[in-house]
Fold these 2 entries.
Entry 1:
Amino acid sequence: MTVTTDLVSYEDALASYDPVMGLEVHVELGTRTKMFCGCSTELGAEPNSQTCPTCLGLPGSLPVVNAVGVESAIKIGLALHCEIAEWCRFARKNYFYPDMPKNFQTSQYDEPIAFNGYLDVQLEDGEVFRVEIERAHMEEDTGKSTHVGGATGRIHGASHSLLDYNRAGIPLIEIVTKPIVGAGDRAPEVAKAYVAELRELIRALGVSEARMEMGQMRCDVNLSLMPKGSETFGTRSETKNVNSLRSVERAVRFEVQRHAAVLGDGGTIVQETRHFHEDDGTTTSGRVKEEAEDYRYFPEPDLVPVAPSREWVEELRAALPELPRVRRNRLREEWGISEHDMQSILNAGAIDPIVATIEAGADPVSARKWWMGELARNANESGRSLDELPITPEQVARVTALVVDGSLNDKLARQVIEGVLAGEGDPDAVVEKRGLKVVSDEGALGVAVDEAIAGNAAIADKIRGGKVAAVGALVGAVMKATRGQADAARVKELILEKLGVSEG
Amino acid sequence: MTDSPIIKLTAAEIAAKIASGELTAVEVTEAHLARIEAVDEKVHAFLHIDRDGALAQARAVDEKRERGEKLGPLAGVPLALKDIFTTEGIPTTVGSKILEGWIPPYDATLTRRLKDADVVILGKTNMDEFAMGSSTENSAYGPTGNPWDLTRIPGGSGGGSSAALASYEAPLAIGTDTGGSIRQPAAVTGTVGVKPTYGAVSRYGMVAFSSSLDQGGPCARTVLDAALLHEVIAGHDPLDSTSIDAPVPPVVEAARNGSVEGMRVGVVKQFRGEGYQAGVVQRFDESVQLLKELGAEIVELDCPSFDLALSAYYLIAPSECSSNLARFDGLRYGLRVGDDGTRSAEDVTSLTREEGFGDEVKRRIMLGTYALSSGYYDAYYGSAQKVRTLIKQDFEKAFEQVDVIVSPTTPTTAFPIGERADDPMAMYLADLCTIPTNLAGNAAMSLPCGLAPEDNLPVGLQIIAPALKDERLYKVGAAVEAAFVARWGHPLLEEAPSL
């Protein structure tokens, strides 16, 4: 499929139209068992090994609600400032698809467990944008189809399909925003910030790891444009399965440009679902909704209503953790850093490791420096997230302690970190094995300094002549000779002393 | 050939004789298997006979007894299981072609309870496809004959179970009742059938027709036998969210102490009139007279919403069935048609459903799909649910005045096979008196109250109790049964012609 519409530039599009967005985010809960049966939710198992009569939809099987799933839904609802239903039911969403064993999805329809909330999201420059939440409801995931034999991996052109029902029945919470208006040219940024903030929130609540790359959090982007000054929403497109923060931003941007081009040519937007392409950031038409799909929702007769007691809801509310944005602002003030720096730390996923490192005794500056420097680089190069690195915050704190007490300098500390990452053991073990200790033996240092002065007579003369800045070259020579194990500050002092020059 | 006298024994008698060592469970099972062999070709009550499994189960009971272990109240008693409950390793078809060849990998909770109670499961009985029907003619595997007259229907959907009892192929059977599928077959075969309170018997492993109405229950030839079976199969099941989490009502105790002395018995105005066979009305009126003689006070009741019950039922049940039956798509189990490597999954599903489902099932799937469609939901499904609420309220009001309600179970005696097969509306009327109970979720029983003079076929008396008061059915039922048997000089079934 090729994109036939020429795009309008983003700036031109925004000059004529206001974007309206609706974001639907599905979060796979991290419950141990599925939503309606006792099967494991562990990822990566043999296909169809984590199934039972209920999640396979065998004749006669019945669902039973996972209480932890309900609790997680309420926590999410509360953290999104939603009202929690006193009484609500599941509903059946009827449609045929091979990866759905019962050919209906057990979901919620007009009685969601949580509704009418909001999430404040902070943009890069610190501006806060309030995204209103329509509802959060419970449902079950479908199985997974793998289409084999076609070029695109889509069903079109495939010779056959493989079905894995391990995912069928995993609890999902679908969080739906109200129409997001007024974001203007910042719409893509707002969309991305919303999904990012939601992800932080979900993680802080401990209800899911919300890893987008693992499909634990998936986003559908609905977008329409209305002419500037109009209050009537245009026809929307639904871009499905936009599965990274960057993609969310790009998908919004692309759809704004595409809609503007179609509308600008006097065309009409077709209400349809669209596929997002990670490779070039475009979307293409999926299935056209000629008429609204009729899911024939009705209350699920196999389940009793969910009626969370007010006492329970209040208990859960009282136990909510500090919300991520509030926490970030607190930490930012404690650490005395800028919005921008905090944003970078957030983007790197470094908040929790830094906090833990500080808790283990490190000072905030050092903790930030290691996690945002050496460790971030290593994670980046090895394609891992910070929390996947084989080093603990306690170990990082130990390294900083060794620097503080003068046992290590920065260069040596980096080598220690490297050793820990390479699996050589604790920082102290690495120091021991590699023999990494600052050389503070004045005698040994004195010899190295004398040799450096002797071997660099010209530079030594310049220093004697008052060019103190040239001392760096001699310090470098000493450091080289001691394989970096000397205390550079002490080396400098010794050189100046021997040359009879004072720094001031 | 001569039949073993064992087959005429009640379940209670069989259990007692096995416990005392007078009979072995294997002897009892063999006698019933022989009876099945002798008559089932004519009756066609069974879809599957599990000879080996039944004998193995019987041997295990005998061994238990030899070891001196305590036996349960129905240990070693044979039972005919409606083919709607899953049985691990034994075919379960629900009377449908679409499940032909499916061997379930799991036991229904009810199946498990029967096995745990050492009940001997002889096999699976015939039924209207997916329990949709009142004659068992909708079975994809051919009709079942009524042992009173093999050219007539044994009721439905559980005609296989009622026929197995009336033909002495089994002393106990299991049915399921969505709109009358236990009670109407019991009525037209002169046997006893009970639809317990909704939620009393687990639905886990019972193939769903209409989830909010379906209820499994006991079928037997006597009230006491039904009570003994009731106690075995009822009770809370964590695998069924709609199952009642409360102790099973004292049904056996009630069945052993039948009495209507001082009870208030309601007769509902709406349960008579046009369409009721004269002989049925006559036997019902005599039953009311009998109740009075036994010391009950009769109270006339008006339940206007009952006139709407049939209409509401034929919106709710098809709606739920249209969703419940969506899973039969030929992809994972059962029949698959047209999978020749060129057709899409969608085409294979269409061909499978076209061939695998019978007319009545298709009719109800279409009805339900339509009733749930957006734009029609409120007018059809929504209104039907409101009627359901009204019916519940009428029952509640009624039970403020009376302890139980009585009515004919079904307006006519067994009709000839084929008579209503092409007239769904006529067929649906068979459930006129039974449906309100399903919609309200309370308990009801049918038991024999005589033969209609005009055709010498059994008439059923329905007793209805409030939800969770199932024991009242047995208390009243046992009293009525005892009085009638005393009057007739023998159980009604003795008058059935020998096969």
Entry 2:
Amino acid sequence: MLVLVNAFKAITRSVGRNLLIMLIVAVIAAASAVALSIRHAAWEAETSGAANLSVTGTIGVDRQKLMESVPATGSADGSDDTSTDRTQAMDSWREAMQQYPDLTVDQLRTYADSSYVQEFLYSSAISVNTTGDVEAVSTESTADESDQDSTSGQDQSSDPSQGGAPPDASGGFAGGPTMFGGRSMGDLTITGYGSQSAMTDFVDGTKQITDGAMVDTAEADNTCVVSDEFATYNSLAVGDTITVSNPAEETQTYTLTIVGLYHADASSQTSSAGGPIFSTAQDSANQIIASYPTVAAIEEQSAAVATDTTDSRGQTVSTALTGSTSGSYVFANPDAYHSFETELVSKGLDSTYVLSSADLDSYEASLVPLQNLSSFASTLLWIVLGVGAAVLVTIAVFSIRERKYEVGVLTAIGVSKPKVALQFVVEMFLVALVGLVVGLGIGAAVSPPIAETLLSAQVAQQEAQTSTVDQNFGRMVPGAGPMAGPGSQSSGFGQAVEYINQINATLDWTVMGQLAGIGLGLAVVASIVGVVFVLRYEPLTILSNRS
Amino acid sequence: MAILELTNVSYSYAGAEPVFTGLDWSFDQNKLYGITGRSGAGKTTLLSLLAGLTNPTVGAVRFDGKDLSAINRYRYRSRDVGVIFQSFNLLPHLTAVENVELSMRASGKKIDHKRDKALALLNRVGLNAELAARRVLKLSGGEQQRVAIARALSYDPSIIVADEPTGNLDLNTQTDIVDMLAELADEGKCVIIVTHSPDVVESVDRVYELQAAPVRARKSRRGAKSTDDSGPITA
């Protein structure tokens, strides 16, 4: 009681000093509230985003590492004649690439046996030509119809005798078996999926079955699903068959039965990858869906009758249809992804192969402005706390020295030093509490708008930085692509990053708890000075000096 | 048994010659004592020992048979001894009555109606309610002295120690104060006055005279009131 009464009287006695302390604590509390709420909101956004993020990863050759292992081009003496070196480097590079081919589905499947992997999705895509009256959809050729009077797709497929040529004005590759990525390029792409989950376009709803049914992914029954655009273009319906041929060997044909039609939200002339189209086979309308066993069976049959030839560079080229396999692992969250990454090393995956995830990279890139803001908030918090604590301690030191006589009198009349010290602590706590409440109110009011403003500035800065880098590299200017929009930014080659540009920086119980802790800590720091002084003071010395 | 005893008490400040040595004095309840001595003889230092503000360098000060250095001196100061400092040592930001109440609360004793009792005490020492409500800085020296006395009495200690309680006071006020202290001694308290004033010395039951060394004592002139008339006291 004595302590409380004395503390209250002391507070009301030194109104000016205590108002100053309240003001300082309020400023510290308000600034801390803003900083803490930003940090907390950033953390929440990050953790909730990560918790809800289903990550897919693929294992592929680490080409960067592979390139580093290949001897560099250029002559040692700096002369201009480096063609020999370049040829050697190219050969070394090709040799290295052949040494480390993409992993097969079976190899990828062995790594999928992991507690971190939720699902293993795989597919294989082969490029084939149309035969007979069936043509690949090509709007470019329709535009030039007056000049050519036929679709380029038909022309290309129907005339295999024409050699490979660079893309012409009619779109796609004019002529027969064009080589793309070491494989013959046709008019259509048949993708065989290992499961329905692997059909991400259907899972996310950008493609829907409009007639018939989806193929049975477990059966090698030579059935397929084609786009409604392709079906309409060729007057095909469910139950009809289409015959496709090997672009490298037109006599090699395969017949598939259409069991369903699908509609793609993306219009024709849009590549399945969203990028520029170099071939009709990349047109989303020319994507034929089959089961993985069906595609594997076609590849097997093609390999059985394939012949090898040697090209002008001395490379052996096979006429076999070889699929571009793709295997991706689905993880529940980024942690599982990183754990799997570690597990792959322990399972003996060659270090030339690497696990990568475009969606995780994109997600992490989207967090950059938020992380920058959080880092800024942390710095602000430490500065405010450091400066605030120093000011409070200084005031406390002057205050206690000013009240030395009071300490002397109180201890002389029998109030113990711990009680006197406690009185000083209580005073500081009561004053700090008021300052904390005021600061908390101000902080609660200003946190959301300040956080939004700062985050917008960070996003703008990040966009400007990325834009500059893109322009320096001659990449597409942001805003031109279909992914562009508010808060989105291309990052690298056409991959858009949706920056997190909203933050909920309201004060919640966690932040208020942290603020209470900060207030308590500051009061303790400031009070400790008082306590130390009080414990050092001797009443007789104080009163004698005063006398 | 004496309520307060000094046994072979010496005191010296750090690195200095002893202020006094070999004090063997005792103080009883129901008596008014005077301690005199020349300036610098250590009167205020001795008062600090009696008030429990410091410990002797040699010897012991015993309260009720217990060595002050071995007991809780805060408790002793707040409950058993009331000190009237020469410079009053009142808290300037408090009113007269609040200063008195503060001592009541500091004692930890259960005292009901503190405000009424504080006002009554102040009234007894000659301060009315209007003066009692003033901050002590707005009171005269004599009035502050009275507040200091009231504060010393507020928790009913068994010993009252007063350092020059009549210094800077006019003759009438001096007489009032000394009479009041004598009255307290008559009520059963042990009252010890450190003084230079011959008039005060004339009024006490027993006088101890403090010299640097040796210390000598002489008989009180207030013999009629003394219960101990065993002759001159020697140290």
